[in-house]
Every structure is written in C-alpha cells, then in structure tokens.
Amino acid sequence: MAAQKQIDTVAFLTAGGLAPCLSSSLGYLIEAYTIRSPATRLIAYKGGYKAGVLQLHGGSPIGNSRVKLTNVKDCVKRGLVEEGQDPQKVAADQLVKDKVDILHTIGGDDTNTAAAQLADFLQSHGYSMTVIGMPKTIDNDVIPIRQSLGAWTAAQKGAEFFANVVAESTANPRMFIIHEVMGRDCGWLTAATANQYMKYLSNHTMLPELFVDHSRLAVHAVYLPEMVIDIEAEAKRLKAIMDEFDCVNIFISEGAGVKDIVKEQEAKGIEIPRDAFGHVKLDAVNVGKYFGDTFAAKIGAEKTLVQKSGYFARAAPANEADRTLIRQCAMVAVDCAFQRVGGVMGHDEEDGSKLKAIAFDRIKGGKCFELATPWFVALLESIGQPPSKVADHVVPPAGHSSMSSGEHGIFGFDGGDAKFRPPARAGAAKHSLEEAGMAVPESLGA
C-alpha cells in the first residue's frame, strides 16, 4: 500500500441540482476525516454544521452552484467575475489562498469534470491539489458508474408522492393524471419510481367495490427518453383503459420525446433556451403538458392533471440504502485522499463493478437506461404495455441497468437476501474499506 501523505486542508463543494445524497455525503466525509485524521482542517464556503445531524436532512447545507467556469460570458452575466477576469483563475486563487490539499466535489458529470479542469489549471500554475468527486445525480446516468448517489431515495420518494396524487383520480370523471419524473436523457429514475410505486400498491389492501381498486390506482403507462413512443397505438390502448376504469395514470420522464419536440418547435422558428452547460431548459419544453395535450383528446379525458415530483424527491434526506452506499464511497474516498488518488468514486461497470476512484477523463453524462433490464420488462408486462423500440439516439449501456432500489443489498447488485448493515461508528472506516476490497492502513488496525 502506498504511504499515507499528510493532509492539512480539505475543502467541500456541492454543485448542480439537489439530490438526496448531498447532506449525507458531507456527513460521512466529515466522519471519515474525524476518524482518520482529526488534525486535518475541513472547510466549505459555508460553515456551521455537524456530521451526524446531516444524515437527517436533505438539500445541501453549504449551498449549490450552477456555474461553468469555462463559460466566461455566463460568469460575467451572473456578476461572479468582472469583464476581463478568468473565472478559473479567480476560483484557483481562492483555493490557493485557502491552502486546499484535497477538494471533494459532490455533483454530476459536469461538476466533476469542471473540478478536474480546475485541478489541471492549478497544476499548470505550480500548485498541486487532488480532486475527488462523489457522483450525485438522481438520474443515475453517469458513465461508467453503476449506481449514482441519491437515485434510490429519489425513486422511493417519487413513489410516495404519487401514492397521494393518484387519489385525484376520484375527484373527476375520466381523469388523466401525468406524473412527470426527473430524467433528461436517462429513464432509470422514471422506471424505478414506477416500479417502486407498483410494489407499494401491491402491499395495500383494496376495496374494489368502491374506487379503491388496483386497476384504477395502478400505473397504466411508462414513457422514457430511450423509447420510441407510438402515440396512436398507445392512445388506443389508453382509451380502452379510460373507458373501463374512468381514469388513466402515466409516468413520464421529463426528457421523453424532447429531441423530437425541440426539433418540431425550432422548425416553427421557436427558440428553446439553454443553460450554461448548453442543455435545453426542460421547463421551457414542458414534456408533461405536451403529452397531456397530445393524449387528452385522443383518449377522451375530461380533465388532465400534470404533477411533477422532482423537487419533492430530490430534496429528501437519503434513505438507508443510499446512506449505506454513500458511507462506503466516503470511506474509500478519504483513503484515496491520503494516497493523492483523484477521480470520481463509484462502482466501475467497466471493471467488474469495483468501487474505486474512476479517472475524470472516463466520466461522462447521458448514460442510457437499458430497456431490456429484467425488472423493467416485468413491470411493463404487469401493466399491459407492449415493449417499445429503442430510440435512434440511444447508445447501449454496458449491461442491464441497476436495480430499482437498494433493498436487496448494494455490493453485488445482483439481488438476493443479503443486506449490508452499517457498522458501529468506531469501526466504520475499517469495515467500509474491507467491504470495498481496499487495504486497511495500520492506523485502523489492519
């Protein structure tokens, strides 16, 4: 094992949209450094928190940014730098001033790539800093990471959200409810949320003589960005459901059909706004409303209700499965910090799902959901939805997409009854390193 190097100062940064892993990741990283190196100075650009308390909260206790340092025009527009200043240099100067040895970034592919560019910038100017990322995205779409942090929680919370919303089907005849779920390019979260909801529904007592009936409360369709959606065929199928049960409930990704919708809008001369990273602003496209308007007349809906669970799901505290995964990643991340090994923490799908720091140049966004994943195939069969063709833009992932929840354990990702139990605090670092197959340093009783 490489010799440990002293760490004087560690900085934390969270960026991008919220996810249920942000507070928990900070908490476990702080805990790991407290165990391994109590003398290390821990800083963030907002302070005043305690590690244990963070497991109970969602959001980010140090605030998030949605800034791309290489987009100078946007940084000037936001008032972050003055005209003529280099945003990367301004950020780098602050890190040098704070004498940061290790920068832990908690964000998606854009955040971690930007941090790596910043580290390269510093190195080119004679300052060495190691960047270690934690993969935050509820979309679960980071290549080549098997499971991103916070996604399991978001699926669970999205299912809980709809469990209340679906009761609106009793408020009006021929009710059409659209549950729009986050997911720009990847349908994993929508699929997992629908799967979790149907599991939830199967465990509840029904009263079919009234409106408390499984067929009324069920998911009737799931539409993902990876699918070619046959509107006419689906409208015919859904109209039959509407005629029989007086309601239709669909789950749709916010990115489903976006490429076609944008192409259609731009052909009409309508300009679609984009963010600092060049992504289409999905609220401007409004997929839920588009599909609501498209389907409503075809299925004879009397009232259409579009409900978005995104903010409810992404701001939640991490659940047990996610906290287990986060703690494991955090413990190994701190071990990598002492060895000055940079990268993004995750189970590498291209290396036997081994947990390690994955090189930044291998990190990419936009991983697609595999429509042939067994649990998703079973879900569609259970709701009577025919399989869809795969959209032309889809790049097949390394294999079947990960499980829809962490209820069966997170290390093998193959199901079964094994369930990881977080170790007692005193032995947490040692246990997590052993579980990940990492060498345990002498200071932890190897």
Describe this structure in words.
The chain has 446 residues and is α/β, with parallel strands linked by helices. Helices cover 38% and strands 14% of the residues. It contains 16 helices and 13 strands. It has helices spanning 22-36, 51-54, 72-77, 87-97, 109-124, 151-165, 188-202, 214-217, 231-245, 258-267, 282-285, 287-299, 310-314, 320-338, 374-383, 428-435; strands spanning 9-15, 41-44, 64-65, 102-107, 130-135, 175-181, 221-223, 227-228, 247-253, 303-308, 343-348, 354-358, 389-390. Strands 1, 2, 3, 4, 5, 11 and 12 form a 7-stranded mixed sheet that branches. α1 crosses α14 (320-338) and α6 (151-165) crosses α7. The longest helix has 19 residues, at 320-338. 47% of the residues are buried.
SSE blueprint:
Layout (H helix, E strand, L loop, with lengths): L8 E7 L6 H15 L4 E4 L6 H4 L9 E2 L6 H6 L9 H11 L4 E6 L1 H16 L5 E6 L15 H15 L9 E7 L6 H15 L11 H4 L3 E3 L3 E2 L2 H15 L1 E7 L4 H10 L14 H4 L1 H13 L3 E6 L1 H5 L5 H19 L4 E6 L5 E5 L15 H10 L5 E2 L37 H8 L11
Parallel strand pairs: 1-2, 1-3, 1-4, 4-5, 5-11, 6-9, 6-10, 7-9
Antiparallel strand pairs: 8-13, 11-12
Helix pairs in contact: 1-14, 4-5, 6-7, 9-12, 14-16
